[in-house]
Amino acid sequence: MFYLLIVEELSDKQLRKLAKAIPADKLGELATNLGLKNAELSHIEQDHPRTEERIYQVLLKWRNRLSRQTRQEEMDMLCTYLREAEIDAVVFFPGTCEQ
């Protein structure tokens, strides 16, 4: 089941909660779908030994690069990935991730 929580911004706390919902074996797929480069993922993997922390760092890097202009498009991309990967999650911005 996919849950929707409407928020104005994705806080660090919400990203941590989302990171817990994403299975460890989805790390590479998540990073690719969110547009991170292989070098960025490698750097995260070197700096953070725990997979949950790696997933959180991928989400954090992705969120921090969002501009107001690209936010809707990027949120839609994350939403689509989570839905297609059948990951139970609580998310997002107004107007996105319609069930």
Protein described:
This protein has 99 residues and is mainly alpha-helical. It has 5 helices and 2 strands; from the N terminus they run E-H-H-H-H-H-E. It has a two-stranded parallel ribbon with strand order 1-2. The N terminus is likely disordered.
Q: Determine the mean pLDDT.
A: 79
Largest sheet: 2 strands, parallel
Number of strands: 2
H and E string? EHHHHHE
CATH class bucket: Mainly Alpha
How much beta, percentage-wise?
under 5%
What is the domain total for the residues? 1
CATH architecture: Orthogonal Bundle
Strand order of the largest sheet: 1-2
What is the CA-atom radius of gyration, in angstroms?
A: 13 Å
Task: Spell out the CATH superfamily.
Answer: Death Domain, Fas
Shape designation: globular
Q: What is the end-to-end distance? A: 9 Å
Give the helix/strand layout.
Layout: E1 3-4, H1 12-21, H2 27-33, H3 38-47, H4 51-64, H5 71-84, E2 90-91
Parallel strand pairs: 1-2
Helix pairs in contact: 1-4
Tell me briefly what this model is:
With 99 residues, the protein is mainly alpha-helical. Helices cover 56% and strands 4% of the residues.
Key terms for this structure?
single chain; 99 residues; mainly alpha; Death Domain, Fas; two-stranded parallel ribbon; 5 helices; globular
